[in-house]
Amino acid sequence: MEIDKNKNYEIIVFANQDEGMKAQRILLANNVDFKHISTLAVVVPEEEQLEICRVLAGEGLIISGFYNFLYRDYEEDFFRRAQDYKPSTNEGKFLKSITLCYVAPCIADETKIRLIAYFSSDISEILPYLNTVIKGASYNKNGPTLTYTKGRKIINLYNIKIAIAKADDIIDAWNILDEIKDLINETHKNKDTITPNNEAKVKITALQIYGWLPKTNCKLCQEATCLAFAAKLLLGEQKLQNCSLLFSDPKFSENRKLMEEIGEALWF
Ligand code: SF4
Hints:
It is a single chain. The protein is of the alpha+beta class. The protein has helices at 17-29, 49-58, 78-84, 127-133, 170-189, 206-212, 226-235, 244-248, 253-266; strands at 9-14, 35-38, 41-45, 63-69, 98-105, 113-119, 138-140, 145-150, 153-157, 161-167. It has a six-stranded antiparallel beta sheet. Strands 2-3-1-4 form a four-stranded antiparallel beta sheet. Strand 5 (98-105) and strand 6 form a beta hairpin. The chain starts with 8 loop residues before the first strand and ends with a helix. 32% of the residues are buried. The structure holds iron/sulfur cluster. Iron/sulfur cluster (SF4) binds next to helix 7.
């Protein structure tokens, strides 16, 4: 399929190489026109994407997700980067694989993507070591979760999964997942020489969240004060949408976007 710059396209992403190769065989057998990105994703015309997903799902295929292929905004070298990307073949001793299970556009910025991937084994025991190794990470031992940023990306590690917000595109996402897999395996290999850090450092505080709220104490969220709402938001006991002022008054839209971005990482 030749990409026409004036048409809209979608990138369909698959969970792993086996699923991706199976998908491409099914698409060929059904005479579906698509552009190959790698064994892990294809580009299809936007208007055909739902029908194509239906065909694939009918064959029992697992689709991680899809998002707009914004060709006009992409760097011209997108397909070159895609060809250069080789899925990691490093068989880790501790963590064998990471399976990409969910891909979608970011809520606050649809030109970026967010994703959830699952580890082949529980990494809880490594999180305190990663808390030492990754500078500037926020560790919550009660989760347990480890949150850190890489450029504009927000990365959240849980015991069995990883959530990433604001990846540039799917190639960026695959590279981050490969890096993280290698980092986890390297940290596990060297753990006898690393002092684990069990200190819970939660960098985002209720007071910071309060600073981004309208501070009217209007109680529309059913909380007595904005500060109480902030504290519950941090604990995952409230939803941002319950502060209706944030969504109805344009003067709070920047703060709302910021909290949505942070929330993507902390409250998946
Ligand atoms: S709805 Fe929003 S502004 Fe009103 S009390 Fe709750 S957090 Fe504060």
